[in-house]
Specification:
Layout: H1 2-11, E1 15-17, E2 23-24, E3 30-31, E4 33-35, H2 44-61, E5 67-71, H3 74-86, E6 90-93, E7 106-107, E8 115-123, H4 127-138, E9 142-151, H5 155-163, E10 168-173, H6 174-183, H7 192-200
Parallel strand pairs: 5-6, 5-8, 8-9, 9-10
Antiparallel strand pairs: 1-4, 2-3, 6-7
Length: about 210
């Protein structure tokens, strides 16, 4: 599944590589790769692979799940479609409380003690998805874990998830996408080592502009 999803994302141009002119994340990290999983929603065949893949992960790892909760905003559509496939209730968690109406942060019905799986599009440092996990836990949910389309596999992200005692299962990951991209000519084979160095230590920017 990892290689199929990697090929899917590459085939629709959802993965952008710029090892010589890196992207700047909101956190200040400079990254040689940007993954826009929202593009899967406009590619029906890829979307089908993604949603069925997420459903399979949930069946395999979280058979006792009672509801899905998407992250706002990228995880909402995936939680809705996957929830439909699994015939499960679905809701989502806002980045902050609404300033009007009921001022909800959690949208959708959530019962105390309900067993929930969080649906996310991608995970880097883990900060945003853990904010969602903490919000659900504070509301009384039992968060079984996370499913996501893509994970960078960064050390600090893995440590953050472990410290919060929450597991994540992704359809594909950074290493797989880089390997498939090199095999299929999306990037130069000489770029692979640079990209993996970024994954291992994002704060070390020595890979930027390195001659290959």
């Amino acid at each position: 599944m990892k290689e199929q999803i990697a090929r899917d994302l590459l085939s629709i141009g959802a993965v952008f590589f710029r090892p010589d002119e890196p992207f700047l994340w909101a956190s200040g990290i400079k990254s040689p790769i940007y993954c826009d999983n929202r593009l899967t929603l406009t590619a029906p065949e890829v979307r089908n692979d993604v949603e069925n893949g997420l459903a399979a992960l949930i069946r395999d790892y979280y058979p006792n799940v009672e509801a899905l909760m998407g992250t706002s905003t990228a995880g909402i559509a995936h939680a809705a479609i996957t929830g439909h496939l699994l015939q499960l209730p679905m809701g989502y968690v806002r980045s902050g409380n609404k300033d009007h109406g009921r001022k909800n942060r959690i949208e959708g019905k959530l019962e105390p003690g309900e067993k929930v799986v969080v649906v996310e599009d991608l995970i880097s440092t883990g900060g945003s998805v853990l904010d969602v996990v903490n919000t659900l836990r504070e509301a009384g949910a039992e968060v079984l874990g996370i499913v996501s389309i893509f994970t960078y596999g960064m050390k600090n992200g893995l440590e953050h998830l472990a410290a919060a005692d929450v597991e994540n299962h992704s359809l594909t990951d950074f290493d797989c996408i880089v390997r498939v991209a090199a095999d299929e000519g999306y990037i130069r084979p000489t770029d692979v080592e640079r990209l993996l160095r970024f994954r291992d230590n994002p704060s070390d920017e020595s890979w930027i502009g390195e001659k290959t």
